[in-house]
Amino acid sequence: MKHTDEYEGLVAETVMVTGADGDPIHAYHARPLGPGPFPGIVLFHHRPGWDSWYRSTTRLFAAHGYSAICPDLFCRVGHGEPDDVAATARAAGGVSDSQVVGDAAGCVRLLRSHPTSNGKVGLFGTCSGGRHAYLAACQLDDIAALVDCWGGNIVANDDALTAAQPIAPANLSDRLTAPVLGLFGDQDQNPTPDDVNALEEILRNLGKSYEFHRYPDAGHGFFYDDRPSAYRTAEAVDGWSKVWSFLDRHLS
Amino acid sequence: MCTMISTKHPMTGQAKGRTGWFPIGQVYLAYDHPERSQLEHAVLLDFANEDVGPDARLAVELSIDQATALARHILATVDQAQSYEKG
Q: A13-34: per-residue pLDDT in tens?
């Protein structure tokens, strides 16, 4: 907690990152002012796109002392208002898993190369971004923490797989080295409580470090304060406190 | 895309979106998280033109019941139109 007489400042701006296949993509980078060292966090936006909630949440991470970056995973689709771009991406079948992991790798490189970095990088995502964060944590080296907020289709049957999303990320869990924080609402349709149970069983059987928290009265997206039907105040306050505690333990 | 329910179809016509009238190139149909409706999932209907860009889009979000009603209304109107054209 900042003291009232303590200086605080941050910088937040759009930057270019070298993503998958060497493609330049946009990312929103927010970091505290000062020499650091600061831990890094990559935010994977949700299906509604690279929107205002993700930009403000990126700044929130910076205000909590993280060098935070959120890539526009739909950057290659085109540009416009986020919901229009997201609709185009959805109609195209979504972005490919391999592209997302490549884009995340570029963000991790940027964070680690920054002179204020403490060398540690975590991953955070909600909804489809939770799935992407989980996938990237299984495929990138030296990820220090993973926060999966209600990521759907991490556990998935073959009929849910597509050309762009050919693998259920849960099936890569043996490669996971980062500790996992999972936040889920019991009213969620994807992931369902059974999906969460199945993922927890996989992590437990593999001996992975994880902590799952489930909220009986929450559904999908209970952090989204811009979506009144999804937002759950008490659960969001508790969930965010668990995010900060978890990241402080693993990224400081 | 969380539900994986999404299709895209070629379509011609005209639509009026945020940038004014544009020639329709595609229609997107999906059942997924809506942008504005207070529903976890909605039937999403987008008239778009990918040659123009993402801004060329007319978006509609409906509950399953309302989407069913719309489909019936369209088919009823089409039936009447076909009868009219036959004289």
A: 999 999 999 999 999 999 999 9
Nearest CA in chain B to A221: B40
Query: Chain A residues with CB inside 8 Å of B33's CB?
Result: 46-48, 127, 220-221
Distance from CA of A115 to the nearest CA of B (A): 36
Provide the ipTM.
0.90
pTM of the predicted structure, to 2 decimals = 0.94
Strands (E), chain B: 5-17, 20-32, 42-48, 57-62
Rounded to 10 degrees, what is the CA torsion of A26, A106, A40, A197? 100
Are A220 and A229 in contact, with CB atoms under 8 Å apart? no
Closest-CA residue to B48 (of A31, A21, A91, A239): A91
Nearest CA in chain B to A222: B40
Q: Is A159 exposed, middle or buried (0-12, 13-18, 19+ CB in 10 A)?
A: exposed
Residue from the list A80, A90, A220 with its beta carbon closest to the beta carbon of B40? A220
Q: How far is B50 from chain A (nearest CA, A)?
A: 8
Q: How far is the C-alpha of A74 from the C-alpha of A155, rounded, in Å?
A: 23
Put simply, the answer to whether B32 touches A90 (Cβ < 8 Å) is yes
DSSP alpha helices (H): ranges in B1-87?
Answer: 64-86
| Cα A108 from Cα A102, distance rounded (Å) | 10
Q: If DSSP codes are grouped into helix, strand and coil, which group holds residue B56?
A: coil
Q: What is the pLDDT of residues A90-145, one digit of tens each?
A: 999 999 999 999 999 999 999 999 999 999 999 999 999 999 999 999 999 999 99
A127 has a chain B CB within 8 A of its CB: yes
